[in-house]
Amino acid sequence: SATMASLSTSDLVLVTLGLAIAAIWFLRDQLPFLKSSSSSKPIPNGKSPNGGAKGATGGANPRDFIAKMLDTKKRIVIFYGSQTGTAEEYAIRLAKEAKSRFGLSSLVCDPEEYDFENLDKIPEDCVAFFVMATYGEGEPTDNAVTLMENLEDESFEFSGGEHKLPNLRYVVFGLGNRTYEHYNLIARRVDASLEKMGATRIGKRGEGDDDKSMEEDYLEWKDGMWEEFASVMNVEEGAGSDTADFVVTELEKEFPTEKIYLGELSARALTRTKGIHDAKNPYPAPIKEARELFATGGDRNCIHVEFDIEGSGLTYQHGDHCGVWPTNPDIEVDRLLCVLGLGAPERRTAVINIESLDPTLAKVPFPIPTTYETIFRHYIDISATAGRQALSALAKHAPTPEAAERLTQLATDKALYASVIADGSLKLGEVLQLVSSAKVPDFHVKPTPETITPWKIPFDLIVSLIPRLQPRYYSISSSPKLHPGSIHITVVVLKYQAEKSHHPEKDPKWVFGVGTNYILNLKMAHHGETSVLMSEEGIEDVDLSVPPRYAIEGPRSAYYHEKVYKVPIHVRRSTFRLPTNPKTPVIMIGPGTGVAPFRGFVQERVALAKRAIDKNGPDALKDWGNIWLFYGCRSSTQDFLYAEEWPYYADQLNGKLIIHTAFSRETPRKPDGSKVYVQDLIWQQRGPLTKAILEQKAYIYICGDAKSMAHDVEDQLMQMLGVGKGGTAEVEGAAELKLLKERSRLLLDVWS
């Protein structure tokens, strides 16, 4: 009572209020006005009080895909294992087709964002799709590592307490490349694991081959799969409809300019705020150096580029990859804008917003708000060969019945498509221009609204059909121990003539790689070169083999400052690494630009050698293992990459660097008249190499062309190791090669 007497009136109020709140908390389940919303009136239109989709932002576990499926009434869940975005693109295509064919909605999931303990709880009237790319040497993509572990680890228990999935129905489509040894291995492993656990596959396992035509493999597989899907799932085709994925809205002209994305790749880039630089927020790296590596006067280009990363926070290791974010060339941007009736200046720069009608099915693939021109220049891949399925979707929007008929023929006749579009390497804009023109167009002439017939294609369909423009990856050709403030890349410029001409009176058109010709533009601008690029005016007698122009200054000239050009880049980690012990011998095989990572490897050893000699004297490298480099190119005087550097590195390594070269247009030919390549050099050195591999536990690295070189080198290694083991290439040699791969002593960084 003495204490109560000392309290003021305000104190009494506070104490009383506190006691009341506590009483209400403890009695909350008995008080009707505080009971859960399940007993109250339903919220109209399935909306939660905060305006979002019901259950989408509630207290449920965000990693529980089953809860999301039930909450949003999805009967299909699609998981994708994707490294570059292609598998995700196919996952979305499957989801859209399930909706248009059967009216079934799908939940498209990045497996990295979900847990799989409740995979055994998928309802029996639902199905799981797995769209899985194989990465590297038969490895899962980064976002599918945990999924694969859960599926293959027999000690992993699902919610029922067992490693079994007897009630699961599933579909598998794999993405791979037949030139690689482990073709579509991840999709096959997923299929085998699910089958072993008692799950039931719907349709055949699909396998796409990127070496030939992923698109055609997908189209051939999907119809049979959907037919069996309809039967197993007891659904009828025709229940769906062609509903839009997005709503596109043009904004008022007074919309604040500073809020419009004009090519910026992240919100931080738009607002110019600091943050971590990665694939979601690339760093605009200044170009320190960009020079031609091939001899002048030739018809090929190879560019050495050095990016300044001082103060960026970017770090890298030898063997990593540098992702370069290119833009599309001016001529293709202009062409598609004109084809869609957006070529006039006021239409090109119109500001638009895009809203997804079902974010679980299709997310807006690029930053918004933005402009039509920006989307075509920076955000979507308009430079790829047009796909048949996309053409089919566009035919009904043709400007004339004749154009519709021609486009439908190209979309439905596989042989005609291959002859005209695939062999002609025609992009979407070129195809639409071709089928709607009265006479065969010259694609090298600058497109204008006056020379191109416009199509009335809803822009939401363009956003749905054309995938996001992806970064191009290049092996880093430097070591951070010698170049801590810069990243070097070595890039051969891709330029070739199409197999067939679309024009009866002209040669096949030239095809230019998007990323490499973007870099060539930058190299020329860096040196102020005045060499003619593809004519802006479309002059008839222009050399058609010259590369197209790019808007290399970037959005709001952000990539050009004080006469220095910048390039948006990020670093992708790799397992392509040297052994930590320098006493371990190293064998590197890298013809052409396959030598790029090995320049970084050698620089790494040079830096380590300098430290060792400074600390322990001139004999510090005595016990080091040899470093063999097998390099091949056409000519010692035309395309021998970094020829002036190798003698210096060899001197710094006290003779431990041993280089063997094959110049296919110089080296004396073999007795049968065939050219000498790197695999032939390996056989010539089989004695010391076999000893290094079998006795000294040497590491072997192969970088370059996967289609022929890598296979030929592996065949030579099997032959060599088979002899070394006293057996044959097919038995002992193959077994030894398999063991080297399993123990990560044979590593490949190859491409097709």
TrEMBL record:
Residues 280-562 form the FAD-binding FR-type domain. Residues 38-48 have a biased composition (Low complexity). Residues 76-226 form the Flavodoxin-like domain. One of its GO terms (cellular component) is cytosol. The chain crosses the membrane at residues 12-28. PROSITE patterns: FAD_FR (PS51384), FLAVODOXIN_LIKE (PS50902). It comes from Dacryopinax primogenitus (strain DJM 731) (Brown rot fungus). InterPro entries: CysJ-like_FAD-binding, FAD-bd_FR_type, Flavdoxin-like, Flavodoxin/NO_synth, Flavoprotein-like_sf, FNR_nucleotide-bd, NADPH_Cyt_P450_Rdtase_alpha, OxRdtase_FAD/NAD-bd. CDD domains: CYPOR. One of its GO terms (molecular function) is flavin adenine dinucleotide binding. This is NADPH--hemoprotein reductase. One of its GO terms (biological process) is sterol biosynthetic process.
